[in-house]
Design a protein that fits this description.
With 296 residues, the protein is an alpha/beta fold. It folds into three domains: 2-58, Arc Repressor Mutant, subunit A (Orthogonal Bundle), CATH 1.10.10; 63-151 and 255-287, 3-Layer(aba) Sandwich (D-Maltodextrin-Binding Protein, domain 2), CATH 3.40.190; 153-245, D-Maltodextrin-Binding Protein, domain 2. It has helices at residues 2-8, 12-26, 42-69, 82-99, 118-121, 187-198, 213-222, 231-241, 269-287; strands at residues 31-34, 37-40, 73-81, 102-110, 127-131, 143-151, 153-158, 179-181, 206-209, 226-230, 243-245, 255-262. It has a five-stranded mixed beta sheet. Strands 9-8-10-7-11 form a five-stranded mixed beta sheet, sandwiched between helices. A two-stranded antiparallel ribbon has the order 1-2.
Length: 296
Amino acid sequence: MGKAAAQLGMTQPSVSELISGLESTFGARLFDRTTQGVEPTIYGRALLKRTLAAFDELKQGIRDIEFLAEPTTGELRIGCVDSVASAMLTPFGRQFFQGYPDVVLHVEQLTTPTLELPRLRERSLDVVVARLVEPVADEHDDLNIEVLFNDHLVIAAGMQGSWADRPQIDLAELVNEPWVLPPPNSWNSMVVADAFRARGLDMPKACTITFSVHLRAGLSASGPFITALPSSLVRLDGARLAVKALPVDLPVRPWPVAIVTLKNRTLSPIVQLFIDHFRAFARSLDTGSLPEQSPA
């Protein structure tokens, strides 16, 4: 109660009185009081779930008014996996900010590629750009999921390495090379493992295991390391990262990149603007009309 009072700029007795009034109005106990503090009851959690949406709509209304007053300004919060942020948000941002220089993008890196997305469901994020690694299950029926394009995985190495100029590479040649991979349960590693298994080969041993795209690319660019990266990342950012896709045959497995929003949530105009522009940008990737980045 004391912490809540301090955050709201109220006295503790005022907060206690306010909660008591709410409990009287609803005819249900909203909080269980203990010597360690308070926690919401099932009735409190039900009310909290609804108030999140109500206050979010109020905030969205304020953002709508601000956008109507000045259509080229606004803020939005985006959740994005590392590989998409690294490859796509840089060239997209250059285009977007030419038309909307006063818009502020708050980009939060997602640590997992799942669709649990608690920050989106808590309405702390406006939109998420995610990679789909499995069919969307029924428990995600509260989400709008729009596939923008199908990416795929490529084997990559440094541009200056010994593998860079080979016209063709057999997967068996890479078994004993030092690999830099994400954890074994990741989509990348599972595709690589399936490719070696299909050839009757053992999965190569990884010398470094990390989700970090920049670490995987950095090691590959600076030494004899092999890695697996999204094709879009190598195409758009390969020159800057000094990595290139190797001519290795892998099973064709589409890797959808999707934009995700909450159903039954009114999007502010600036969020819809971002989605429209990002959708058009993704289509340019799919048609091959976007040029590769040149080295910085």
